[in-house]
Specification:
With 373 residues, the protein is of the alpha+beta class. Helix content is 25%, strand content 26%. The protein is globular. The C terminus is likely disordered. Flavin-adenine dinucleotide binds next to helix 1, strand 2, strand 3, strand 14 and strand 18.
């Protein structure tokens, strides 16, 4: 029987552990806290699932595959982990990122539509779209209950035979040291999110930034059915309607200051609330003074080009990270991809290799943000 040690029970590590266990591997999953603990990036209340990725086909396809896997996982768990509310992209330019995305979605046969801004406006009880050229509608996109999904995934992994070990792991040659225990296996995978750069300081080139998220109270009639997810790529803002009572999420994809995921303060900065309210005032004016229901601080683990790191750092030791703020949705499909690499059934794409990268934002949910507001 092949064996693996996976370090990190965020959604990437937990999904990989589950996939490996279900395909015949003996798996140990190491986590320093509880799966779904509030310091991990995966423990946000919600995460968007969208297939639009600009000109990129690989991530679009991966997201589409993941959508099916999330739905199946929810059915298996007997709870809704993925709310398929649809997502609308507010395109400020006629020929920008959203137009490129639409072309790729068309090539891949992923459901989408191009709408006049007025039609997008009808999705929301209160909406200002006078700055928009068009809207890109993804009816099969939606919102994942992220923290819950990590807990469910890790639980299913344990049910599938994964041994969950609590403790802070350190690399020990090709093995993993946790307290006094040395864990060896045919493959070791470090899926440590924002902790990866401190474990492998020389190889990852990952920057960790602080990201603030707010959820605002909405009137009752905005909640059933929940309003869709929405993204303003050139405005660097995104969010979604009230899902399960969590309120309207409004956040920005702009990088916050450098951040320590372990010691960093987890109180949202007043300027983040100001920025969210300014966006609400512009796009959904009636919510500009809505009450804050939930405020969360999280962190991005950014590579310069937003491509992930999936690489063999030394023989049989893999690093999996640099999610760059867009990794949650893909997790179950990414786990399939990585499991094939560990099995030797496939080679990793060069785009995920360690080493220098050219800066690019094309895979993120915001562009250069040189347009007003
Ligand atoms: C504000 C915000 C919004 C986002 N929005 C979206 C979105 O809409 N859609 C989307 O797809 N993605 C989104 N993301 C990105 C998504 O959350 C991440 O891509 C994903 O959660 C990364 O998961 P991970 O498992 O790699 O990392 P994490 O969830 O951070 O997990 C890493 C785990 O490793 C553990 N660990 C680290 N070091 C050790 C060690 N030495 N020993 C033991 N355990 C260790 C940590 O405790 C942690 O539990 C967003 C991120 C943020 C911050």
């Amino acid at each position: 029987m092949k064996s693996a040690v996976v370090v990190g029970a965020g959604i990437w590590g937990a999904s990989l552990a589950l996939r490996l266990a279900e395909t015949g591997w003996r798996v140990t999953l190491v986590e320093q806290y509880q799966p779904g603990h509030l310091r991990q990036a995966s423990a946000g209340e919600t995460r968007l699932l969208r297939c639009a990725h600009g000109t990129d086909e690989w991530y679009a396809q991966l997201a589409w595959r993941a959508r099916g896997l999330w739905r199946a996982l929810g059915e298996r768990a007997g709870e809704e982990l993925y709310g398929e509310s649809g997502a609308v992209w507010f395109a400020r330019r006629p020929d920008g990122w959203e137009r490129q995305s639409a072309q790729v979605l068309k090539n891949l046969d992923i459901p989408h539509d191009i709408w006049e801004p007025e039609r997008a406006g009808r999705l929301f009880p209160d909406f200002r779209g006078d700055d928009l050229a068009f809207a890109l509608w993804e009816p099969r996109a939606g919102v994942l209950r992220a923290r819950r999904a990590v807990q469910v995934t890790a639980g299913l992994a344990v049910d599938a035979g994964v041994r969950l070990v609590f403790g802070r792991a350190v690399p020990y040659g090709g093995a993993v040291k946790v307290g006094g225990e040395l864990l060896g296996a045919d493959r070791v995978v470090w899926a440590c999110g924002a902790w990866l750069p401190r474990l492998f300081p020389e190889c990852t080139g990952v920057t960790v930034t602080r990201q603030d998220t707010l959820h605002f109270a909405v009137p009752g009639e905005w909640s059933t059915p929940p309003l869709p997810a929405w993204v303003d790529y050139d405005g660097s803002a995104y969010g979604h309607g009230d899902l399960g009572g969590a309120g309207m999420k409004v956040t920005s994809d702009e990088e916050g200051p450098p951040y320590d995921p372990e010691e960093g303060e987890r109180r949202v900065a007043p300027r983040s609330e100001d920025a969210a309210r300014a966006y609400l005032r512009r796009r959904f004016p009636v919510l500009a003074d809505a009450r804050v229901l939930l405020a969360q601080v999280c962190q991005y683990a950014l590579t310069p080009d937003a491509e992930w790191i999936i690489a063999e750092e030394r023989e049989n030791v893999w690093v999996l990270g640099g999610d760059s703020g867009h990794g949650f949705k893909h997790a179950p499909a990414l786990a399939e991809y990585v499991a094939d690499l560990l099995d030797g059934a496939a080679e990793p794409d060069r785009r995920f290799a360690l080493g220098p990268r050219e800066p690019s934002r094309g895979l993120r949910t915001s562009g250069d943000t040189d347009l007003p507001g």
